[in-house]
Amino acid sequence: MKKIFGIQNFRLCQEGVCNANMDGRDVVCIMPTGGGKSLTYQLPAVLTPGCTLVISPLISLMRDQILHLKEAGVNAVMLTGGTPKQSVNEIQSRLASMATTESNDNEIKLCYVTPEKIAKNQRFIALLQKLYNGKKFARIVIDEAHCVSDLGHDFRPDYKKLSVLRHVFPDIPILALSATCPPKVLQDILKILQMGPVVDGKAAPLHGTVHFSAPLYRKNLHYTILPKPSSAKEVISTMSEYILQNHKNESGIVYCLTKKDAETTAEALGTISKGAIKTGVYHSDVPDDIKERLHTLWREGTVQVVCATIAFGLGIDKGNVRFVLHHTARIFIAHLSTQKSLDGYYQESGRAGRDGKDADCVLYYRPQDATRLSSIICSEAAEGQTKLRDMLRFAQDMKECRKILFAKYFSASSDLAMNSWTTEEANAMDRCNHCDNCTRPPESIANKDVTLEAWQILKTLAAVESRGGRVTINGIGDLARGLGGGKFDANVGGKRKKAKESVQLDCEAVAGGKLQLSKDDAEALIIHLLINDYLKEVFLSTAYTVNVYVVSGAKALRISRFSRADILEGKCPVKIECSFRLQGRKSKAAGKKAVARQSPEMYDFNSPEEDEVVPAKPLRKAAASKGKGKSKDTSDIVAVDEITDSEEDFTKQIRMVDELPESEEDDDEDETWGYSFRTSRQTTKRRRVSGGGSRKPTSSKTNDEDVISLSSD
Ligand SMILES: Nc1ncnc2c1ncn2[C@@H]1O[C@H](COP(=O)(O)OP(=O)(O)OP(=O)(O)O)[C@@H](O)[C@H]1O
To answer: Which keywords fit this entry according to its UniProt record (predicted)?
Structure first.
């Protein structure tokens, strides 16, 4: 381990997994992203004779692993649909000769393949059988094992066919690895892969599948939500200052919502930092060779920051990523039907600090982002809304520890037991003491009773609705605050006609006066009302755009049925409390003072003296520790240029093949994988509205102009 992999000590459950593996046991190992799963099979692989077969869903992950292993001097190969014919032949003949040679010299220690290779390629199974007969088949490793289960979130049909392995190689030990595995998925893994019932890895009896599970919590990751300035330029300058001050010359990722955002952010970060921050762009349209080059430059540190969409990170193994910034709260567009937004955020931010050292995970958030996100996910209707709300709840929360928020979210949404978050030092519900909410000075936020303000918003909205008008999230805030002349568009043509009339809202008569909140606070309250069902979003699509409007939610009447006097006298049984930042917001002095905005405690948004700056404090860092995480996004599973496969399904005709037919073409199988993925992706795209990804300026007067043009990745 020290000599080949340069690793000094085992971490989490690595040692136990290696030992069980060396003992020839079936093992299930659940370890967070970046926890160090690879070592649990790579170390036994180099210590035992023969070849270890690794099944992985990600070509990019395989490439990365091979690169690492080759650097470490380990003989490893990969076989995918994209492997050139000549290399395939060479690898196969090396494996075949390994099978018939006594000597262990020059053995291929690890052979990485896609699941299709097993499911549909007889020739390859025959080759494995040769190895097996020659006692040179050491073990089977199934990475991302949760993909076998259709109960999980990343089901891959070809993974299900891996059940063939136990049939054909009954006594070859199987190591199933995953970062995310709720109990029902675990049971499915055992059933499909035909592994025995689990026994506890800490005291395993002689029979059964040895089960190891490391805590999900990674205490080296420090989560912070920072207020996002309103202008795009200021957002970039804030990020630039943050990076230069906290992570100068350290590697990081900036996740953006769209490809266009990734491109503009990369360019602007370079410009604003005067070249001090070297950036690269990664998204699905970037050609493969450029992606690979970027990956190399980033690994060696020539590129400091990769500005990317969700396409980046899959299977990327870079230990020293010191920060992951989210330009905008993340919604997993490609995985909308299966993946929740907070899962996505957790997974992406989890790409920081894989080496176990301190790293920062920063999300730039402003309530207005919800408008854009909502419109992007609108085609997925109600389900999408729940996912968005999880993310909004997380971002809006300024009190609860981020670790506890994650623990509650995951245990509620995926059956992961709360104790997945328990570590040797702390219980799941103990505060982490190092996230923004744990370290935030109490005086930096105000918890206000805003029942009256909520009532005003709901009353204003009811007035708009009573005239057949429509209003956006931004629009309702402005209208309640009496901005834009206090006008809105009412429908005067009846249901079928579209005639509109600009109507003057009488704030005094409708809501007893103007809403006394700043724009930002009003929007924070509107989001609060939205995620708590006092308000609801509706989506109206035209041929080219999707407009997002806000309407009264299921609980609106609980407040709006009371009079202003009732509210003031406390007769309304519902109390709306909301936290507002007292410090940590934008300043007009964008340039020089932006440095101070790196931490949430920096600026006073509400302060009349906006130029008064609290001195900058570096973000707090805590002691380094173990990893935690979630499943990998497998959305770039496909090498699009892979060779077409015969549609043969090997599992339907299990048979032993003793000889390799010399002339048989290698039926490359990954195309099927790619095809299904591309199909779903195209479908997703078709359903969405495409466009420039920008939002026109809005006014309370012309809410229909708050049109959102969308582009998705
Ligand atoms: N015991 C250890 N001590 C220090 N670093 C380690 C240790 N084990 C693994 N690492 C390093 O941690 C990083 C992550 O390891 P690895 O890629 O195996 O994680 P993983 O669990 O497979 O994550 P993922 O699920 O994202 O693929 C690698 O850079 C690896 O070298």
So the answer is: Hydrolase
